[in-house]
């Protein structure tokens, strides 16, 4: 995906300095810009750690939707279940996929009972359909909500019980059905991740289910599907991808493999997200955002995330709001919080976003300036996309802060935040973001 002329060591990772890509067919994947004068930050490498990297089989490129049928056949499908949502049905993509499945000799059971921020009872209902229809392979066509719902159905099909029983890490004991994921948005990364995020309607919060078994067997990324996204969803999922890249890069669980994908994702979002809003039918920009979402997903499923996601899950569960929009509000504040004790890790992030000028390699003051620039750049992008400036504008009140903070502390994503955070810290972050 990347054409490399030279590399620069940046922290514990390597930034690829790319030449202009040569056209490949009709839809070349463009490499993000490398601003003039980009300099390396100070090297702080130590003994390399063991790095484990979970990844499904991936097929990427315009026009790849039809390959989902072949993937289902290879995985042994006889009665596949296609999980999608009403919006995708109206756009016509599930109909196209069903035609491809029929050509492969498969008749799919279509279930579209998913709403944004999938609910525990929706997953239970989908599991009933899966069981009653005698389904086997699960094919999901949609955004993060559809894909998470499909994972939840697969989890229940293999393990039984209620979806809320599996909150936490590696709680499922038995194998689950094969899964083929076809993302229709450019940001969630759910199609390659080991995460399943579900709304617990009894507690009005989102729960995080994490486990290697949830990594799909196949991800098929067709940028053509992105062209039917409404603008608000394009903005929200793009900000989600940016948050994935930034939080994965500074995560305690990062490694050189995840660093590469995280920085690539950050640079691609910084260069192409706004263009997809202005030119929604432009294939090159859409393809770059599809790549950004994919690379961000590969980064965060292996490095995990941080405080922005841990906090966002609680707000989304309470108010049933778009996850990426909440991230766009919270992320600048979390960047400042995490950079305060040691800003150096944020220099490559600022560079990937296009930081002008040079940073002295061993300058803490320069690194702090870069981190602040990154926070301001994230806010600038959010402003351009029409994201509210504070949580108060989307319905969060001062009275919500203690409960939201308590639930944040129990979120698995907080465990890999680069800076320790207690109840007082999280409450202060929420209040700053109001």
Automatic annotation (TrEMBL):
Positions of the Fe-containing alcohol dehydrogenase-like C-terminal domain: 235-433
UniProt keyword annotations, A-Z: NAD, Oxidoreductase
UniProt entry tagged with the keyword Transcription regulation: no
InterPro entries: ADH_Fe/GldA, ADH_Fe_C, ADH_Fe_CS, Alcohol_dehydrogenase_Fe
GO MF term (any one): alcohol dehydrogenase (NAD+) activity
Matching PROSITE patterns: ADH_IRON_1
Short name of any one Pfam family annotated for the protein: ADH_Fe_C
Boundaries of every Alcohol dehydrogenase iron-type/glycerol dehydrogenase GldA domain copy: 57-223
Enzyme Commission numbers on file: 1.1.1.1
Region annotation Disordered: where it falls in the sequence: 17-46
Record keyword RNA-binding present: no
Similarity-based family: Belongs to the iron-containing alcohol dehydrogenase family.
Protein name, per record: Iron-containing alcohol dehydrogenase
């Amino acid at each position: 995906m990347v054409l490399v002329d030279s590399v620069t060591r940046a922290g514990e990772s390597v930034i690829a300095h790319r030449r202009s890509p040569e056209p490949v067919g009709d839809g070349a994947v463009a490499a993000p810009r490398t601003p003039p004068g980009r300099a390396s930050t100070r090297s702080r490498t130590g003994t390399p750690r063991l790095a484990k990297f979970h990844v499904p089989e991936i097929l990427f490129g315009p026009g790849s939707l039809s390959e989902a049928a072949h993937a289902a056949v290879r995985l042994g499908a006889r009665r596949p279940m296609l999980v999608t949502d009403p919006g995708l049905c109206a756009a016509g993509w599930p109909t196209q996929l069903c035609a491809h499945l029929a050509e492969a000799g498969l008749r799919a059971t279509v279930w579209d009972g998913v709403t944004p921020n999938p609910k525990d009872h929706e997953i239970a209902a989908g599991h009933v359909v899966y069981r009653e229809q005698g389904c086997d392979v699960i094919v999901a066509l949609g955004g993060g909500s559809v894909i998470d719902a499909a994972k939840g159905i697969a989890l229940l099909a293999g393990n039984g019980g209620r979806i809320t029983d599996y909150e936490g890490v590696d709680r499922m004991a038995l194998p689950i059905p094969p899964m083929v994921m076809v993302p229709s948005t450019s940001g969630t990364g759910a199609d390659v991740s080991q995460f399943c995020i579900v709304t617990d309607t009894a507690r009005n919060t989102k729960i995080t289910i994490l486990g290697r078994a949830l990594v799909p067997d196949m991800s098929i990324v067709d940028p053509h599907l992105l062209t039917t996204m409404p603008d608000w969803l394009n903005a929200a999922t793009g900000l989600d991808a940016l948050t994935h890249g930034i939080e994965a890069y500074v995560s305690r669980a990062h490694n050189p493999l995840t660093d590469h994908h995280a920085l690539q994702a950050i640079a691609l979002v910084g260069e192409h997200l706004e263009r997809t809003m202005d030119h929604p039918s432009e294939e090159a920009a859409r393809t770059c955002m599809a790549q950004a979402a994919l690379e961000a997903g590969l980064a965060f499923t292996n490095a995990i995330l941080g405080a922005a996601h841990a906090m966002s899950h609680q707000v989304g569960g309470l108010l049933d709001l778009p996850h990426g929009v909440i991230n766009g509000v919270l992320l600048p504040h979390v960047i400042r919080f995490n950079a305060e004790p040691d800003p150096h890790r944020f220099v490559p992030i600022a560079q990937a976003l296009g930081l002008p000028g040079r940073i002295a390699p061993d300058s803490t003051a320069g690194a702090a300036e870069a981190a602040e620039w990154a926070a301001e750049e994230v806010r600038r992008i959010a402003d351009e996309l029409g994201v509210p400036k504070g949580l108060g504008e989307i319905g969060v009140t001062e009275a919500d802060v203690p409960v939201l903070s308590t639930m944040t502390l129990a979120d698995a994503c907080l465990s890999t935040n680069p800076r320790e955070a207690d109840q007082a810290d999280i409450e202060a972050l929420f209040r700053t973001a109001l």
